[in-house]
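re the bet — no i am not wrong, look at it urself. input seq straight from the record:
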Amino acid sequence: MLRLLGFFDDFGYPSALATGPLRAQVQASGEPDEAEIVEYLDVGHHLTYFMEAGVDVVTGEVHRHTAGCSSLVTDGMWVWRADFAHYLEVYHVPLPATFVARVRGLRYRMPDLVGADFAPVFDEIVLGFGWTDVEPWDAGSVRRSQPRSVPTRAEFIARIRQERPAGPWGNAPRKPRRGRGQASSRFVD
């Protein structure tokens, strides 16, 4: 089950999803490793992209996540708005202990979320937010990409040499260059 992170009342979400007003959760300081957690939030996997622009709900000013601020981002277990990193960084809102433990356990590196792993996460979000106009993904139809073999440099060169004949391949010898200060006879009067 996905867990929501930082869906404050100020953003207009239903009370079942919201975590209370942002102003009530502002703190003077945050976690000692807050900068690393902010970076983790910034590189999450986007579930949705919304093209709106929003401002800081406390100050009304634009911030680095103004464009697409309500786009949804995930790490496969937690879901947050794209601008949640801003609110953590500026207002030091409290974080759930299980989220902080997960991020620290991952050493602040975002886990991969591709192919068939992504489909169930997206479907759960669609159902959880009650989006009826979005068609859920068929997780069975999503395939993982197959590993491909890439030839080594030596294999590549050997293959190229087999395909091309040896020699200059029909290139004419290069003409000698004129030295500096020598004028061409056709430009002399």
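see?? Residues 118-128 form the longest helix (11 residues). told u. also The chain is about 25% helix and 5% strand. so pay up
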